[in-house]
Here is the input.
Amino acid sequence: MKKIIITLMTVMMLFAQITSVYADENVDSIEWYEMVEEDFEIVDESNENIMPYTAYIVDVITSTAKISSGKLGLRADVLCSSSMQSIRVTFYLQKKSGSSWVTVASKESSSSYGVSHATKQMTVSGLSSGTYRTKAVAYVQDNYGYGETLTGYSGSLSI
Here is the structure.
């Protein structure tokens, strides 16, 4: 009986070694990755190098400045890679409420035509104390009707 069990196990082991089972029939498409546990240092780099892909807008530089008590100046510089049919900026003044930002005022600026750079400015008065920032949404349109949008945020400012 012992000989039969040993022979049976030997035969099963031989079949197990020569039988391959794959979930995918195309063996060439299987990708293998090696994961190794290692200690390493993570360096916190700013996201300056991460840029959205845009065809025309190079950047939207946004700033907030205190003009006087209860009055802020909002500014957005829109830089484009070529001359645009129109550049328009919508300003949103946001106030910090807990851990989130709430829009307290908004206004669209006048459009600039046939330029590759536009500077738009707004003033907001009658503000209560708190922490504010500017959100500027730039919309550009080329001569063929293609439009593109990019949003810029200023740093926060307490008044």
User: Anything to note?
Assistant: The chain has one helix and seven strands.
